[in-house]
Amino acid sequence: MRPPLIAHLLVLVLLPPLLLGVINRTKSVFAGRRGPRILQPYHDILKLLRKEVALSATTTWVFVAAPVVALVTVVLAGLLVPLGPFAAPVAFAGDFVLFSYLLALGRFCTASAALDTGSPFEGMGAAREVGFAWLTEPVLLFAFLALARLAGSLSLDGMLRATEGGAWLERTAPLVLTAAGVFIVLLTECSRIPVDDPNTHLELTMIHEVMVLDHSGPLLGLVQYGAALKFFVLDVVLLHVMAPTARIDGWPGFALFILGLTGIAIGVGILESIMARLRLLHVPILLIAAVLSCGFAFLLLSGNTP
Amino acid sequence: MNSDAGLALLVAAGCILAMSGVPGLLLGWRSPWGARIATSATVLGSLLGLAGCALALGGMGAGAFTLPSPVPGGRLEFSVDALSGFFALPVFVVGCLGALYGVAYWPPAGNPRSGRRLRFCYGLLLGSITFVTLARDGIGFLVAWEVMALSGYFLVTADERSTDARRAGWLYLVYSHAGTLCLVGFFAVLARAGGDFALRPLVPGAAGLGVSTVLFGLAFIGFGIKAGVMPLHSWLPAAHASAPSHVSAVMSGVMLKMGIYGIVRATSILPLPPVFWGAALLVFGSLTTVLAIAFALGQRDLKRLLAYSSIENIGIILLGLGLAMVGRSEGRSDWVMLGLGGCLLHVWNHALFKSLLFFAAGSVVHATGTREIDRMGGLARRMPWTAGLFLLGSVAICGLPPLNGFVSEFLVYLGLARSALVPGSAWVALPAPALAATGALAVACFVKVFGVVFLGTPRSAATEGVHESPALMLVPMAVLGAACVLVGAAPLLVAPALERAVLVWAGGPLRGRSLAGLAPLGWVSMAAAALLIGTAVVLAAVVPACRRARLRQPGLATWGCGYAGGSARLQYTASSFAQLITARFAWVLLPKVHQPRIDRLFPAPAHFHSRVDDTVLDSVLMPGLRRLRGLAGRMRVYQQGNLQEYVLYIVAAIAILLLFNLRLDWLVTEICGNGGAR
């Protein structure tokens, strides 16, 4: 079932901050606090959009354009994923390449904007961002190849909605491996613990947050909104890998889909509450494990005919 | 009739280009007319050549003409087909723009000694490259190839007073001749298998698997040296760094591609390739692309970095070709179309964006007088156009949408992914994750370059007094940038030309497979358009607020996290930016690190220094050659300068040759009699 583009866009545009709210709420419950409301991220972003901008004299037009391009890339990437029972509005052979290269373009912009400020801290964040991403890209690609193998389709929509029916039971092992790899990518790309701590107050230990130190007002709003969108999009990908059989057509299926997304967000919140951040130098080891996990999944699947 | 017109135009273009520098040699070095004549001739020749390429790529058949060869045993044969036209086109585009750029970059007044020689060799290089693509016989091909190599040598050493340039030139010459040696071997074996030196498809069965594998190996090594395939690449970084920037652009954008052209042409004439040829290309392609970009990340010299990135792109091109080879072995026409389509399109794309980057790097080097990235910074304020165009080239070379690099990488990815769907062929898809890692490393590399050179605050006095380049340097860059956008946004425009070139390689129609049918290029255009429109819309909403902010608080400083005493030297440098990644690749980069030990409470001022050399050259070849020279020293006892001894050597050599020439069976009969022979 393919809903109109506008409906897909509405879900894509409206839902993401909710997931951040869920994560924060989970963490506060774990810490024994009441915590902010679940809808707080919406308020935060709207407040930022209304504020004034402050621009460092060092910065150039790159600093202004980067968050904009980064946001647009995530929105476009979001058009390529299906939302539960509803097919993606855009699907074509090889769109998974576009998906991962759109994310890479966003990264190019964010890191360039960080270097544009001339701040040593932001340079540090940018170096770390690109220093981890070269390991997350092969994970995603291995995962997509494995799913393509499973689905016999080269479009993201086809591969994410592939395992309807009983295929999930037969291919449990490779799908679990793929899901593990994608989960690590989600944590890395969205700067969550154990890779990065979004709430830390020491610039020296941050990755994503330190890159956007100098952004303010609407620009910061765009950055935060873009981060929420990215989490949403990768969450959707992960959910489709993890629970492919939990697909019921129509609105009940969609409700279940939203529940699943929330469930993953709660899971991330729990993980953040019970784990500490990894040492920076150990993060690549985690990522290499993810590469191996997805690569192994691909090899397992390539043995049989799909 | 039309086909002859295309060939005639290309031959005329080649001759005009090759001769463009000659009038300048006859004029005095003070005369401004040499440069003017050379540039106009280059532009004219390029326009003629472009027309010829258009005819060839438009499918106007394949014309041919032959000349009796002055060398016995062959004839000079020239011909044009879509493949030749495809590889010749960048010569004219980059060559013409490079000549215009060179007028401002290497002005006759500033370089009285080298100007005339540079223009002569530049024209000769372009002309010989044209003839390399047209030659259809071994003799003509090798002559054009050698002229190309030698004119390249004189261009690399244009700055003759620089020790680095002379050393780079020698290295290039040695490598180049090692490659030519392999090519001579290739043509010799080819002539034995095919009957003559002509570059035409061998009849299946004319050469056994062993002979054709030897042919493939010789072509791969000989052409691979020119293309810069790892580990045969060591000449390339030094040569590209030392040559004047417009020459670097031609060498990187066009001359390296002649190596690719050679491999493509050679594989097209060898029938029935076994699967392991394609597999070898895939393995070398993957290794080249990942390792080269890691080396690029370790560089601090702007042009050396770009040179390593060229090697990386050669790796991507090889991946496409390898996929096409496997496709041909396995009878998969879709892999052939997508793989070779991606390979060839990347040849064009790389010519466009790498030339753009070398031109822009040349502007920066020209303005700052240094190639050290770590001494630059904040140049975007002083050179806004150069910065913008460099950014465009960077995004394109990282293979990011909406620019042209994405399209060719997309084709290769799509072909690799299609192989993953075929039972038993999933191994073919294994380079895809390597390509993904390369893409991300390229992003890291070019964020580093763009960020450290153009953004932030100036790191040294080198950036003082820097100003924007003249229009004559900017316009060629803008043309290349526009071409990058055009190919990226409307790839369907180039699809017909690509398809014709692929069909020439495949030697016939691919069972109705068309590139536009296999690859959703329309969607790629849509994505590019959506990206541009979306960005424009959101920007329009944000920009007024930012403009107000700049007016309201013009002198605002960057937030230093509470530390007010920041200086430009606190900024991340190129090496510190890349450190997290280069540390992972230390096993192959072998960085030379000079690190101070801090063991007291109040340490003395100390310096940190790190450098990444070329591992193959500096850690394998040079020590190996030194050892060889040591061993060779022991041979010196036979070289005493004693005349009688040398006469003895000559007699001994003749005696051995005579013995060798005697038929061995006759010898056996003579010695052992009939019984022994039986």
The end-to-end span of chain A amounts to: 24 Å
**Using only CA atoms, what is the Rg of chain A?**
19 Å
Quaternary form:
heterodimer
Extract low-pLDDT stretches of chain B: none
Question: What is the 3D form of chain A?
Answer: globular
The largest sheet of chain A, given as strand count, sense and whether it forms a barrel, is: none
Report the sheet-strand fraction of chain B: under 5%
Arithmetic mean pLDDT of chain A: 89
Q: Strand percentage of chain A, roughly?
A: under 5%
Describe the global form of chain B.
globular
Radius of gyration of chain B: 27 Å
Strand segment count of chain A: 0
Q: How many H/I helices of chain B?
A: 26
Low-confidence stretches of chain A: none
Q: How many discrete domains of chain A?
A: 1
Compact overview of the structure:
The complex is a heterodimer of chains A (306) and B (678). Chain A is mainly α and 306 residues long.
Overview of the structural elements:
The complex is a heterodimer of chains A (306) and B (678). With 306 residues, chain A is mainly α. Chain A is built from 13 helices and no strands. The longest helix of chain A has 32 residues, at 120-151. The mean pLDDT of chain A is 89. By secondary structure, chain B is mostly helical. In chain B, 71% of the residues lie in helices and 2% in strands. Chain B has helices at 2-19, 22-26, 33-57, 82-105, 112-134, 138-156, 163-194, 209-227, 235-242, 245-269, 275-298, 302-330, 333-368, 379-382, 384-397, 404-420, 431-454, 471-489, 495-506, 515-518, 521-552, 574-584, 586-589, 615-633, 643-661, 664-677; strands at residues 64-68, 75-79, 592-594, 609-611. Chain B has a two-stranded antiparallel ribbon with strand order 1-2. In chain B, strands 3-4 form a two-stranded antiparallel ribbon. In chain B, strand 1 and strand 2 form a beta hairpin. The interface between A and B is large, with 83 and 87 residues.
